Amino acid sequence: RRVHGIVNQDMESEAVLLKAKTLLDAGKYKETIKQCTDEIDGKGKKDKEILFIRARAFRCINKLEEALEDVKACLVLDPGDSTFLEEQAQIIKQMAERGAHSKSEEKIDDSEKTLYADYRKWMESLGSEFKKIELKYFYADYRGVVASEEINKGDTLVYVPKGGMITLKMAREAKIGKILVDKKVSLIYPNNSVLSTFVITEMKNPHTKWKFFLESLPKSVSNFPIFFDEEEKNLLVGSPFAPQIQELRDDMEKDYTRICTAVPEFKKMATLHDFMRTRALVNSRIFGTKIDGEENDSIVPLADMFNYKYHSDMTHWTYSPERQGFVVKSKENIHVGEEIFVYYGNKPNSNFFQFYGFVIEKNDHDEVNIPVTVHPKDPFKEYKEDVMKKEKVPSYIKVSGSTEDKNFPNLMSCLRFLTFQGTLEAMNKIVVVIENEKVDGTSEIARKAILPFSIENEKMTLILLKELCVKNLEQYKTTFEEDMARLDNEKLTYNQRNCLLFVSNEKRVLKFFISLVEKALLLLNTKALPELDAAISSENKMASYFKSLRKLLSEKQIFFQTYQLLHTQCN
């Protein structure tokens, strides 16, 4: 991270500034905040550079209101500073992403706080433990778990006994679940649907054990794409995600119909909308657990209230066989008042949006679908289609914006195969077997692949990749630049913003591959190894592919030099 304008005549202050910057660069955000706060309090006046460093640290731990306050103070001291203005814009964007931009002034209903007090008592009555945390209402519709006292690395934050969890096994053994199992009803999403029938049944039960948990569930599910109106869905046109959402709605309706056919009374308990709403809530709260040696999807009260943060490494959760319950532990020291997050893993926004109703800005794991089908006029069309069918090659390959993506080599192998125009015998020779070495020293076949084998074929492959990406971009109603302009300049609803972030991230990935093609073609045309080495050093997300090009060019140059030597000797 670059700190703007470090110019200070006071050597002592300069040393403090350097130490704060070092702490920030090292990711020690809490120490950074303390260092800056001590400096500000000690001087009795505000220094824009110290304020800016503290703002960056606040933003990194998601204390956005404090970060915004510090940046505004920086702008009072230096109104035209572009770095301060850019930081302010980033904080506001992040606040909008979590829903704060339009909701921060809304009044929090006191009944929600009363409900939480009853909820805590209920959880304690089940034998749950959560002494160092509390639920905080940041603003309407946004709550999270914060530290109520100092937390050390390794501390248990939440313990919920097995009896306080809603498990798939429990749902299957309940009345409706048992009928579905006994009748062997075929459901498209069996686990989530059966869990949803249990939750709906308990919602209708006036004496349910789960009263306080069920009352704590969000009232609105309008942020889930399956409930979007036409205007919101229109923002997703061109993305493969749009038909995927419609397919999900159709599949939910099929599951609902099959359940109602097997258990007619269920139709009186829940409408299709009720079922879809509950499915959305269940999907966003499931923890994959292993209980008594069996995989068992579970809903865990209280643990489901931790918010997600991209690449956060604050906590670890698991089912503990020793304690016979679900445990969330801290992976770092956490200060009083700090929000505590969980991390769901490396997932594309299509997963977050569909199952959780939010989108991560600039998600490194976002994917696009690149079609891999044989051209209708290819002279080897029948042969290639037979091979692809035999090898079970899908009609498209999902790949993220990096050549390090595990699917990228598969994509390039397929495209090399599609563009190859040699004989059938030669075509068979270009396929190589990639093996993985196992722990015991033996190897196993991981995949078949076609590595770069000729400069001309690689050029054709790259041109095809660019054509496919351009064609994908043409499916959208707006350009990447238009999306970014709207995100920067318009006051958008939470759903509108998520839709634009989602499609702009897809377009960013497609533009990455177009850029990759243009740089790679230039390097292949010049055949200059020094330029290729420079590209390998400077282009992190493209480096692995450029390394394969270097190997190709090196082999061709060695061949050409050997040919020249032999030709000279013969003469």
What is the compact description of this entry?
The chain is an alpha+beta fold and 571 residues long. It contains 24 helices and 14 strands.
Explained architecture:
It is built from 24 helices and 14 strands. With 571 residues, it is an alpha+beta fold. A 4-stranded mixed beta sheet has the order 1-2-10-7, with no helix packed on it. Strands 3-9-8 form a 3-stranded antiparallel beta sheet, with no helix packed on it. β13 and β14 (443-449) form a beta hairpin. The longest helix has 33 residues, at 494-526. The N and C termini lie far apart (62 Å).
Helices and strands, with pairings:
Layout: H1 11-25, H2 29-43, H3 48-60, H4 64-77, H5 82-97, H6 100-103, H7 110-125, E1 133-139, E2 142-147, E3 156-161, E4 166-167, H8 168-173, H9 175-182, H10 190-203, H11 211-216, H12 230-234, H13 241-262, H14 265-269, H15 272-283, E5 286-291, E6 294-299, E7 307-308, E8 315-320, E9 325-330, E10 339-342, H16 349-356, E11 367-371, H17 381-390, E12 396-400, H18 408-419, H19 424-429, E13 432-437, E14 443-449, H20 455-473, H21 480-489, H22 494-526, H23 529-538, H24 543-570
Parallel strand pairs: 7-10
Antiparallel strand pairs: 1-2, 2-10, 3-9, 4-6, 5-6, 8-9, 11-12, 13-14
Helix pairs in contact: 1-2, 1-3, 2-3, 3-4, 4-5, 10-15, 13-15, 18-20, 20-22, 21-22, 23-24
